[in-house]
Amino acid sequence: MDQESTIPQSDPFSLFEIWFGEAKASEPNDPNAMALATANPQARPSVRMVLLKGHGAHWGSGGGFVFYTNAESRKGEEIRANMHASLLFHWKSLRRQIRIEGPLEEVSSDQADAYFHSRPRGSQIGSAASDQSRPLPDRKLYLDRVASLEERYPEGDIPRPPHWTGFVLSPLAIEFWQDRDYRLHDRRRFTRSSPTEAWSNTLLYP
Ligand SMILES: Cc1cc2nc3c(=O)[nH]c(=O)nc-3n(C[C@H](O)[C@H](O)[C@H](O)COP(=O)(O)O)c2cc1C
């Protein structure tokens, strides 16, 4: 049986890049899909999937992972009350998991505009028309809003609603998990006390 860990002690952003590249090559769809966990002021957690839309050392104060959403949604309200979150990738084709934890900051309005307007026009309209997470008595109401935005802006980009924005999670912990035979799995956890400090790492019992 192989004695060594297969998870190197390299910089966790570089290691993420390698694993993400392998996931893009092997996952059937959405290799950038990740679970985002937030908690409300009563410390009750909630989780949903979002898409990773930026990552690496140039984001946030010491590197980060970026997603975009409606800040008036349930997750948006929870983030406003508690600017900490946790992300999870599970790539089934590779039998790998990555857990990421840390504080959040909002992206600049220029960054939010740039990403919003990089999306297809139909997606811009769909998100501008959505009061995400609010009750919708009848789906027709949503489709009517879509139609009225199409009429109001017959071509080109749609203005980004001010509550449609992005967040950068600056990780204080990143844990890599690799399936191994006989459930003798391999885990390495990288931690740092602030986004500008150096990383430490340790293996964990699986
Ligand atoms: C694969 C996948 C990717 C998704 N990506 C996003 C995303 O990037 N941003 C977003 O706001 N919602 C995304 N959603 C929808 C969310 O999971 C969720 O339904 C929505 O954001 C409302 O969540 P909330 O009520 O907790 O705020 C995605 C759903 C799936 C299944």
Task: Report on this structure.
The chain has 206 residues and is α+β, with helices and mostly antiparallel strands. It has a single domain, classed as Electron Transport, Fmn-binding Protein, Chain A (Pnp Oxidase, Chain A, Roll). Helix content is 27%, strand content 32%. The protein contains five helices and ten strands, in the order αββββαββαααββββ. It is elongated. The mean pLDDT is 96. GO terms for molecular function: pyridoxamine phosphate oxidase activity. Its cofactor is FMN. Its EC number is 1.4.3.5. Substrate binds at residues 53, 115, 119, 123, 183-185.
What is the overall pLDDT average?
96
Main sheet?
A: 10 strands, antiparallel
Q: Tell me the fraction of residues in β-strands, as a range.
A: 25-35%
Helical content band: 25-40%
State the fourth-level CATH superfamily.
Electron Transport, Fmn-binding Protein, Chain A
β-strand number: 10
Low-pLDDT segments = none
> How many separate structural domains?
1
CATH class annotation: Mainly Beta
Give the overall shape, derived from the CA principal axes: elongated
**Number of helices in the DSSP assignment:** 5
Termini Cα gap: 16 Å
Structural class: alpha+beta
Order of helices and strands: HEEEEHEEHHHEEEE
* Quaternary assembly: single chain
Q: Calculate Rg over CA atoms.
A: 19 Å
CATH architecture: Roll
Q: Which ligands appear in the coordinates?
A: flavin mononucleotide
Which topology does CATH recognise? Pnp Oxidase, Chain A
